[in-house]
Input
Amino acid sequence: MATVRIAVPTERGGLDDFVYSRLGRTPTFTIVEVDVDTGEIKKVEVVRNPGAEAGSGAGVKAAQTIADAGASIYIGPSPGPNAYAALQYLGVKVFTLVGARVKDAIGKILEELKSS
Output
């Protein structure tokens, strides 16, 4: 049983919230621990994003918050170049997806992971 932690930018947080349209300025991240093999959600946490109110460097701060939460996968809008570089450096795999509920976005990405 392989579990993975997934970070999704959200406004309020939780599985029923929608994927937020911006990475660096998202108010919160919903961190979901899920069993890759079964799709079973083991744990859900909501983490405040300190980058949301940063004067500059919001994307990099958001990337660091994702890594600090132990996430190895990011699902959300396309990150800017600095945030993308930071996520890559921190070992976080990026999946671009917006406009979906968190639980649906995670289901879609898990299907992609299983088929690859």
About this structure: The mean pLDDT is 94. Residues 3-115 form a domain with the Nucleotidyltransferase; domain 5 fold (CATH 3.30.420.130). The chain has three helices and five strands. The chain has one domain: 3-115.
